[in-house]
Amino acid sequence: MSHFTSVKTKMKNLSLLKRVLKELGYEYTEAEEGQKVQVRGYQGQKTDAEIVIHASKTYDIGVKVSEDGVSFVSDWWGVETTRGVTEEEFINQLTQRYAYHTVKEAC
């Protein structure tokens, strides 16, 4: 049974998303073009994504890209337990900084 859950967003600008991740102190690895990276979850379970955010030593947050925007996939219980950040807190922080930079660039 998978413990991975996905959260869809309307974020589409990957370079801006990567800037926000760095600003918030998250390290990440981006897949080579045409490749995928592995997102780690509960008891060694893995799923594929275009970007893997290293939330802790044992749990990751994956970024899956589609035409509609990006989705974040993770074992959120593991991220909360090991990093101390809930799914809601992570998405809210990211969305707030992403919106800030989007407006700043538009001005």
Strand-helix topology:
Blueprint: E1 5-8, H1 14-23, E2 27-30, E3 37-40, E4 46-49, E5 51-54, E6 60-66, E7 69-74, H2 76-83, H3 87-106
Antiparallel strand pairs: 1-7, 2-5, 3-4, 5-6, 6-7
Helix pairs in contact: 1-3
Which properties best describe this structure?
alpha+beta, 107 residues, five-stranded antiparallel β-sheet, two-stranded antiparallel sheet, 36% helix
Q: Estimate the mean pLDDT confidence.
A: 94
Gyration radius, to the nearest Å?
13 Å
Helical/strand content category: alpha+beta
Number of helices: 3
Which percent range describes the beta-strand content?
A: 25-35%
Largest sheet: 5 strands, antiparallel
Summarize the structure in words.
With 107 residues, the protein is an alpha+beta fold. It has three helices and seven strands; from the N terminus they run βαββββββαα. It has a five-stranded antiparallel beta sheet. A two-stranded antiparallel ribbon has the order 3-4. The model has no long low-confidence stretch (mean pLDDT 94).
In short:
With 107 residues, this protein is an alpha+beta fold.
